[in-house]
């Protein structure tokens, strides 16, 4: 009685269109938008770098941090091998045919939980990382790279330990949240007895572009966010700022570091400030997203420009303090998401930005920039950092037998 | 530098295609899927019934319950009038042009918070309701209809007061979560001084079809959900089961009641049960969603069929206990959503179903059915009701000067 079309119809095209080294994107849209069963866009799982970093940012996120409940390295390695196989299958969109939601033996528990049956891959990417605490837990402290150290406390931090840290992380991005949630859930399930969920975060809208083919999205302050983000089409800048080079251990070369910060935004207070005030705090205009010294979004910000009352872009403006110029040339690849986690019990929505950035060295890039922002950024008044975590993200898998963490834990 | 295409590209077509009395849907897709700026599908705001009830269920939800912080009826009425104007503007997709995100006077706080600037309407619907406590708060107890009484406690309920009740509710549904969140946020903002957020819930995937044009989605148990739901194309059944008739007060005739239940699903336990066990608990097969007495999803369930071991559809199967036959002919229009709210602090995801149903009389329809389910449903073992609320949903607005709640509070 019901036509057998995808229940979601067509997804955003944001993830399609660019074929990138290490993050190739294949699109499979029907010819006619109105009758297509929906896009079956897939993100290539294997490549020199993990997917989900320079992959054109998908629209939805489910991020989970896990703790080990076992200190048995062999058990952890076996899990990572199983995770790799499952992740590759899920990102390929072969879920329906091979996922095991309907086992041949009905006396067995289904291998897959089933809620993604019939859904396309929706550009799913899965990205894996290891936290500093994993090394201690597994007796591998001598293998922990120096930059993978707990982040310092920043001025104004109100971190909730239950939303911070983690031995492992999985970042699932997709254009359909059900696909992202399904992937995390099934990996979490497979980890039973070896890992447990420490915290998890859903993000409903991306706040950065990671490809020149994407329009710049808006954060919950209503401003375009990530205009000056590093882009997939700038491989030399990625080598300089994102990918770990010869300075890193073998198992991390070609990988990156993932900094996650859960930033509560006090949107009610923000909303009471005037347009002028908001624009001076950000350093850009709200409509176009142009720097206050320009007229178009991608006009370079002239930080030296002086107006009648002082610098046109104020000394405490967000884009000045976060600029490469103010930070010794340092840049980051941001890949954050807006969130709303219900209400705060005091009459307000619990909303904000789940900040995710990929950097070559968090101690040299994220830490000094965040220190400056926490102290001087006019926007800080409206922000509260409530969660924090750091993970090392190994390089991508190239050979068919490689699996997540093999370089660290052995085969 | 960046093409000015919608950052979301194409949305699901689920909401388009059917033009329904009181919930007409207009689609405006580009001819070429790959270059379209994205669908500008809009849901008609005015009509005999409020939108968001029989409107083909959109993919995403943001639901908020609010409490009055003022007992001044005039102030509440003024707010409802402002809300109506804002809701009509936002659902029409006129946000960019007329929303006030960029005020002419930059010394003023923007009238709109801006994060939906440039986004299409994405089939946004906004539905408004009033809870039993509103009547007490405003000294209107004599106007409260008898069915609008607090729901009784059901066996196994573990209700969190911070996720239950509310003087008012707003249900925002859209195919883009940023559009739904933006709408709720701006209405909440406009209510400052009169209302405050009591609780709010995001839903990422619909769990019911409300139109024969929609495929049946899956819940987090991996089963198709809502196969036998009431559909927009059955106006006589809607009159019988959903719309308040002559039995109700003037201000509610043509309206409905909204029952909301936050149902945590213990997915880890469920996932350990065998396919057979799961199918016997539900009463349907997992792949097709056919009743155990049939082979296709929409085959009618034969509750009388007896197999070698007893009834083919067990006595404690969910679809038997929830059937019209087992409930004196009672039916409901369900419109629920899957949710994941992070983790539970004990190593598991906090995931489940945010159940929303529209009924003509909650005391005669929802209460007896839920009582039976709570006592006998084999599925109950895997469920925990953690939130509960009931609202009366006034009829739709037809005249140009009508506003939400005018029938109850006067003009």
UniProtKB/TrEMBL annotation, chains A, B:
Limits of the Dyp-type peroxidase N-terminal domain: 50-204
Comment on bound cofactor: Binds 1 heme b (iron(II)-protoporphyrin IX) group non-covalently per subunit.
GO MF term set: ferrochelatase activity; heme binding; metal ion binding; peroxidase activity
Keywords: Heme, Iron, Lyase, Metal-binding, Oxidoreductase, Peroxidase, Signal
Membrane-spanning segments: none
Subcellular location: Cell envelope
GO cellular component, as recorded: cell envelope; cytosol
Pfam family, one: Dyp_perox_N
Obligatory cofactor(s): heme b
Leader sequence residues: 1-21
Domain Dyp-type peroxidase C-terminal residues, every copy: 216-396
Enzyme Commission number(s) from the entry: 1.11.1.-
Keyword Transmembrane assigned: no
Major subcellular location class: other
Superkingdom as given in the UniProt entry: Bacteria
Gene Ontology terms describing biological process: iron import into cell
Annotated PANTHER family: DEFERROCHELATASE, DEFERROCHELATASE/PEROXIDASE
Family: Belongs to the DyP-type peroxidase family.
Its biological purpose: Involved in the recovery of exogenous heme iron. Extracts iron from heme while preserving the protoporphyrin ring intact.
Protein name: Deferrochelatase
Species of origin: Pseudonocardia autotrophica (Amycolata autotrophica)
Gene that this polypeptide is encoded by: efeN
């Amino acid at each position: 009685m019901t036509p057998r079309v995808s229940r979601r119809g067509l997804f955003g095209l944001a993830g399609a269109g660019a074929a990138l080294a290490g993050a190739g994107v294949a699109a499979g849209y029907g010819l006619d938008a109105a009758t297509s069963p929906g896009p079956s866009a897939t993100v290539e799982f294997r490549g020199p770098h993990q997917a989900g970093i320079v992959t054109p940012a998908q629209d939805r996120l489910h991020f989970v941090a896990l703790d080990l409940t076992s200190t048995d390295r062999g058990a952890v390695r076996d899990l990572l091998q199983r995770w790799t196989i499952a992740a590759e299958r899920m990102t390929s969109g072969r879920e329906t045919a091979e996922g095991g939601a309907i086992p041949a033996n009905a006396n067995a528990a289904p291998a897959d939980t089933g809620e993604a049956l019939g859904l396309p891959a929706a550009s799913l990417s899965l990205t894996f990382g290891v936290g500093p605490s994993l090394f201690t837990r597994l007796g591998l402290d001598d293998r922990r790279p120096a930059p993978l150290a707990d982040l310092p406390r920043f001025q104004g931090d109100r971190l909730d330990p239950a939303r911070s840290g983690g031995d492992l992380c999985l970042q699932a991005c997709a254009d359909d949240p059900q696909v992202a949630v399904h992937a995390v859930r099934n990996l979490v399930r497979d980890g039973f007895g070896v890992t447990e969920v420490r915290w998890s975060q859903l993000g409903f809208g991306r706040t950065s572009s990671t490809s020149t083919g994407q329009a710049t999205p808006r954060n919950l302050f209503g401003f375009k966010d990530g205009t000056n983000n590093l882009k997939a089409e700038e491989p030399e800048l990625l080598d300089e700022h994102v990918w770990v080079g010869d300075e890193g251990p073998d198992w991390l070369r070609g990988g990156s570091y993932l900094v996650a910060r859960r930033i509560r935004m006090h949107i009610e207070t923000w909303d009471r400030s005037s347009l002028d005030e908001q624009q001076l705090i950000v350093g850009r205009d709200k409509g176009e997203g142009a720097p206050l010294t320009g007229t178009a979004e991608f006009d370079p910000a002239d930080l030296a420009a002086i107006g009648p009352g002082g610098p046109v872009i104020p000394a405490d403006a967000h884009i000045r303090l976060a600029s490469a110029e103010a930070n010794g040339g340092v840049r980051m690849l941001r890949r954050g998401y807006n969130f709303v986690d219900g209400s705060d019990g005091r009459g307000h929505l619990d909303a904000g930005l789940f900040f995710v950035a990929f950097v070559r060295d968090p101690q040299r890039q994220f830490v000094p920039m965040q220190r400056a922002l926490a102290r001087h950024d006019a926007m800080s008044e409206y922000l509260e950092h409530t969660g924090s975590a750091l993970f090392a993200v190994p390089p991508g898998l190239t050979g068919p037998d490689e699996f997540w963490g093999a370089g660290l834990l052995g085969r």
